Amino acid sequence: MIKIHFVTRNKGKFREVETLAKQYGIIVEQLEIDKLEIQADDIRDVALYAARYVFEKIGRNKNIVVEDAGLFINALRGFPGPYSSYVYKTIGINGILKLMDNIKDRSAFFKAVVVFESPQFGEKVFEGIVHGKIALKAKGSMGFGFDPIFIPEGSTKTFAEMSIEEKNKFSHRATAFKRFFEWLHGMISKT
Amino acid sequence: MIKIHFVTRNKGKFREVETLAKQYGIIVEQLEIDKLEIQADDIRDVALYAARYVFEKIGRNKNIVVEDAGLFINALRGFPGPYSSYVYKTIGINGILKLMDNIKDRSAFFKAVVVFESPQFGEKVFEGIVHGKIALKAKGSMGFGFDPIFIPEGSTKTFAEMSIEEKNKFSHRATAFKRFFEWLHGMISKT
């Protein structure tokens, strides 16, 4: 059985990924070490840099996975994008709702990039996107971050009104990790 | 005569610093190479990391200076802070004014951190802060970034309504660079 170390300090993210990994018979452990995040408009660059940095730091001898994600609002030219967690900590959900006040185009997407670094399998990148819209007001108390104001296409609920299992049917993070786990499953079957 | 390479792609910043340097008899040249900016809540960390990265990259054989600055709005918990240029590119001045709509506490400050790396003098850090407030609407067309909505204490004009010389009497960047130039002047006198 393969073991993956998920580098994150975010318990909410970890729980989502852990729930998913179980369905694939993969063991995921949380690795709480500081990663170096760069400023870049493309979260793929942020995730790649962070993953390589951590992989070096731990001595390239463990399977690690780093994820970076962001909420991109079309009417705000992609804001808050790569800086979603900083924006959440400062102006928060109410700040986003205020910025979206009187704006008709409420379309937005969440994007996640997953980077896997492995002594055995090398480096591999997976992406997931979920399109949807910014709700008129915050609803729900599950999940984390901007979940209470994002309604994915195909649902009338916000992410914060969904259980982890339901959110994983839609979410950018679940899509990226499913792609990763399916690929990994195939690789392991070959060896 | 000592020559300093100012690592920036921002012509507006360069002009401000060039104007100031002349008063100290110091030659400043613009060095347009990519610097690596990290995500950090403290711009001091961003500037230090970027300066060390560039200094290594050029072979540690030139005097370089890197500056990082941000606008910190108290009612927005410091937003946009270290990500001021990204926020300027996305939600812009109108986004900030919208966020500040109906907010009484309009106090804010600009902070600049200047990091000098020199084969001769080592590493040295200088800071400058200017307190002020967010204007009710944008005024002026000089300067760059959030200058049209920042009114420094001791003035009724926004930074964008001031000439470079006038802005340099108030600005965070000018304060940090004056401290740097005065220190450098002293060091050169000794050698």
List the helices and strands and how they pair.
Two copies of one chain form a homodimer.
Chain A lengths: L2 E5 L3 H13 L3 E5 L11 H15 L6 E10 L6 E2 L2 H7 L1 H8 L7 E12 L3 E13 L15 E3 L11 H7 L1 H19 L1
Parallel strand pairs in A: 1-2, 1-3
Antiparallel strand pairs in A: 3-4, 3-5, 5-6, 6-7
Descriptive account of the structure:
Two copies of one chain form a homodimer. Chain A is α/β, with parallel strands linked by helices and 191 residues long. Chain A has a single domain (3-190), classed as Maf protein, CATH 3.90.950. Chain A is built from six helices and seven strands; from the N terminus they run E-H-E-H-E-E-H-H-E-E-E-H-H. Chain A has helices at residues 11-23, 43-57, 84-90, 92-99, 164-170, 172-190; strands at residues 3-7, 27-31, 64-73, 80-81, 107-118, 122-134, 150-152. In chain A, strands 1, 2, 3, 4, 5, 6 and 7 form a seven-stranded mixed beta sheet that branches. In chain A, helix 1 links the parallel strand 1 (3-7) and strand 2 (27-31). In chain A, helix 5 (164-170) packs across helix 6 (172-190). Chain A is globular. The two termini of chain A are 12 Å apart. The model of chain A has no long low-confidence stretch (mean pLDDT 96). At the A-B interface, strand 4, helix 3 and helix 4 of A face strand 4, helix 3 and helix 4 of B.
Key words describing this protein structure:
homodimer, 191 residues, alpha/beta, Maf protein, seven-stranded mixed β-sheet, globular
